[in-house]
Amino acid sequence: MRCAKTPPPYGRGTNGGDVQWKVLVVDETSRKLIDNAVSEDDILNLNVTSKPDLDPQQRTRLERSQMAQEQIAGFRVMSVDYFPRESRLVTFRDPWSFPVLFHPGCNHLIRGHLEGLAQKPRAPTHEASVMCSHLARFIQNELDQFAHFQKDFPPPSQRPRGVLMVVDRSMDVVAPLIHEFTYQSMVHDLLPIKDGDKVTYKTIINEGSHNEELKEMEISENDNVWVDYRHLHMKDVLGKLGEDFAKFRAANPQFAEE
């Protein structure tokens, strides 16, 4: 989004006004990443429009076109080789991540994510795990090397220096046994949810009426109930749900029972 907010080259808009539009040109992989992070309206509100995804043939032609290269006003590499799943959770979608987790080659993925956050955190580890200390050392070396060649990283910020915790299951051996009782895991177990680029489920709208409809719904960060409840134990969810519903009825008496 920071790149999208970058002002366009100097000049007036094609309609004679001061409003200028930029064109977003992406391939299929980049499109999935963008759609997973922001909505199309968020992009349009920044005066950025998009064209259909580039197919391999178009991409090859553009890479070889001297005329196309001459039209590039600015060029910047973005480290976005990761997929956000939640506001505080990303995945790299690497099927070989487990067998190569402690290989130095995976450190650039974590470094790329931290570059996107404009952070150069410390990387402490859990003392019970020797492997975590190795991985933390690899990551720290990768960040130090990147900062050595990129003098503007990390950029000035009012935020305190972040901390990247490198841990494994030995830090909390109970979590695998009780995680099934969180609201998020219950929803995935009991509802026909499709967990792909987006988390969706199907439900019947206006059931029993003439305009009954089977509709696919998305569970996203815009759903405040989902964001607030997903990591809570079901015992806490049931209590908080009753409290929140009582507050809703008090603030919206038109929905209260007669």
Automatic annotation (TrEMBL):
**What InterPro entries does the entry give?**
Sec-1-like_dom1, Sec1-like, Sec1-like_dom2, Sec1-like_sf
Q: Which SUPFAM superfamilies does this UniProt record tie to the protein?
A: Sec1/munc18-like (SM) proteins
Matches recorded under Pfam families: Sec1
* Biological process terms in GO annotation: vesicle-mediated transport
Task: Name the family.
Answer: Belongs to the STXBP/unc-18/SEC1 family.
PANTHER family documented for this protein: VESICLE PROTEIN SORTING-ASSOCIATED
Per its record, how is this protein called by name? Answer: Unnamed protein product
Taxonomic placement: Eukaryota, Fungi, Dikarya, Ascomycota, Pezizomycotina
